Amino acid sequence: MADSFGKISAQSISGMRAQAYRMQVVSENIANIDTHGYRRKLVSFENTYDSTARADLVQVDRVFLDSKPGAELFDPHHPFADENGYVRMSNVNLMTEFADAREANRSYEAGLQVFRQARDMYNSLLDILRR
Amino acid sequence: MKIQTFQAAQTYSAAKSALRTNDANPASAGKAPGETNLSNPTFDSVHALTKAVAQGEQAALSYMTSDADPHSVIEAIAAAELAVETAVTIRDKVVEAYQELIRMPI
User: What letter would DSSP give residue A95?
Assistant: First the structure.
């Protein structure tokens, strides 16, 4: 479909897909919050031109690791402790992940709303013929 | 205006060949003998409709059988729904116009 409604649906769906992937990464970070030495993942998006939909869509550019080191915990009896008795924890902050999850959720809802709005617009256009 | 006796039958057979979705090139699909107006916008829209519905079915099938992306399924089915709604609305309008002509006193 090459009309503007087809493009709108392709664009909003691509945004929803990207936000769902972002949510997946957040869930991965939260799941690994107690994994020693885990570094949280970050997602970046990029604009891309899709030739089948003939529209500018969004896609996941790359997933990279947060370089900030995790907190060190003094626990000499831990099997992962280094020679000084410190254990490297993950650098996941629950507050940051929750904020990220909320943001992904809101952006997803925005995409969903655009999709619905476009369909409503098209249906009201058809209503002219239906009378 | 040239009136052909079997124009209705010819147009019907042309539409029948236009409805074939598995043809790779829709322009070569309806090379029936006689006149077949292949750049006819009606046939083009019928093609777009059947393609959208087939894509929607294909997406639903792949979602059920494999782990396809649900977003793609929704997109394909919504496109098919939109296409069907458009076609039904236009058909209703055409039938209505036809009935208007039928009721005309001669």
Answer: H
pTM of the model: 0.75
Q: In chain A, where does DSSP find H-type helix?
A: 4-31, 94-130
Give the three-state DSSP class for A125. helix
Which residues of chain A from 13 to 42 reach within 8 Å of chain B, CB to CB? 13, 16-17, 20
Handedness of CA A58, A52, A118, B57 (dihedral sign): negative
Average pLDDT of span A13-34:
95
ipTM of the complex: 0.77
Nearest to B71 among A5, A16, A122 (CB): A16
Q: What is A53-82 written as a DSSP string?
A: TTEEEEEEEEEEE--SPPPEEE-TTSTT--
- Are A9 and A115 in contact by the 8 Å Cβ rule? The answer is yes
